[in-house]
Q: What sequence folds into this?
């Protein structure tokens, strides 16, 4: 048994235990909290709202754990199930507040140094035009880019979240990137 299969079996074991005794949900919470929190972080700027959404995700997962089915063909993982709940909670949050909050306004480029002088000239990228153009994308397009580039999820994992084929997700993300690229090129060509 390889390491990946062993971890999967351990996860299945904890899911089954948590279904019998909710106290055992703690293992799943500790394992997935950082991933779900990071995903919501890239969508919602305010810490208190982010914490509320993440709490709701895990509360609903705990409450509906009996409905989660472990598929032997691995078409749906527990991680994908949690991300679907998180996406649903985020969408509900945006609908309830009737806000037009977009990821482009809220992205924190925390991997760049604070002092722009510390960035080598060849690496400097102007993110503001990208942020502005991302605001023009619809909710699903923003979600796909967030999962792929901020969460660094593989296409296979994103396909599980959306319950779609991996190739369909690859094509969709490719088209979104092409659309974003063309939009940026069009703006820069107009400025010349």
A:
């Amino acid at each position: 048994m390889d390491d990946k299969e062993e971890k999967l079996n351990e996860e299945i074991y904890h899911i089954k235990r948590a279904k019998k005794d909710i106290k055992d949900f703690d293992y799943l919470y500790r394992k997935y909290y950082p991933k779900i929190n990071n995903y919501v972080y890239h969508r919602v700027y305010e810490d208190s709202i982010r914490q509320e959404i993440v709490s709701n995700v895990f509360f609903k997962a705990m409450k509906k754990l009996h409905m989660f089915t472990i598929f032997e063909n691995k078409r749906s993982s527990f991680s994908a199930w949690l991300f679907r709940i998180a996406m649903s909670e985020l969408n509900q949050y945006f609908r309830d507040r009737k806000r037009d909050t977009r990821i482009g306004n809220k992205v924190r480029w925390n991997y760049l140094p604070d002092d722009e002088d510390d960035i080598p000239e060849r690496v400097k990228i102007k993110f503001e035009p990208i942020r502005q153009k991302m605001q023009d994308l619809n909710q699903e397009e923003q979600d796909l880019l967030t999962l792929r580039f901020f969460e660094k999820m593989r296409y296979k994992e994103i396909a599980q979240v959306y319950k779609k084929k991996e190739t369909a997700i690859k094509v969709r993300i490719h088209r979104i990137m092409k659309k974003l690229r063309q939009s940026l090129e069009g703006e820069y060509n107009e400025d010349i």
